[in-house]
Amino acid sequence: MNNRTGVFIALIALACSALSSAQTSDPRIGHWAQHREPGSVGMHLTYQNLGDGRFRLTLFPHYPPINQLIVEAKCDGATYPYLSGTGTPTGNTFSCRATGPRSFEYLYTQADQKVWATSAGVETVSEDGNTLTWLAAHKDTNGRTVEELSMHFSRRDEEPPRN
Questions:
Q1: Rounded to the nearest 5°, which phi and psi values hold at 45?
Q2: Which residues pair with 139 in a beta bridge?
Q3: Residue 160's pLDDT is what?
Q4: What is the C-alpha separation between 32 and 87, in angstroms, rounded?
Q5: Which of 8, 59, 159, 161 is most exposed, with the fewest beta carbons within 10 Å of its own?
Q6: Does domain 3-155 have CATH number 3.40.50.11720?
Q7: What would the pLDDT profile of 24-81 be if each residue is shown by its tens digit?
Q8: Are residues 94 and 105 in contact, defined by beta-carbon separation less than 8 angstroms?
Q9: Residue ranges per domain, the chain?
Q10: What is the pTM assigned to this prediction?
């Protein structure tokens, strides 16, 4: 094999590796702000890539750490614990699995089950990558639906969280 052939094979391997990596990247990675009425404050959340298919989801990244909820997880169906921004376990848990290149099913279990116990739903990132939609059903400890939500978020990567 001559040098040109070796370089060509290396470039093809590199391109295939980059394509494979791009196909498996999580489209939720970034900072998101909830769509709200003008003048109201919506929920913010941040997905950070931790490598190896893992991510960190921070709910309320603009709040003081004691009020943040953070989970480090993979969308592999396993259950992962939420921590506060100070590292204290909250008793809440999270699990998810990818159902398509831009969609994920999730289950959030709340420790304080006075109003609702679980939130099960679907997260979908729009084709252009700029809108995240959550469709969720909150259920009580008897499995009865107490609330259904549809939340929409805009990508705000230029607006990093203030911790």
A1: -150, 155
A2: 118, 145
A3: 57
A4: 22
A5: 8
A6: no
A7: 589 999 999 999 877 767 899 999 999 999 999 999 998 999 999 999 999 999 999 9
A8: no
A9: 3-155
A10: 0.80
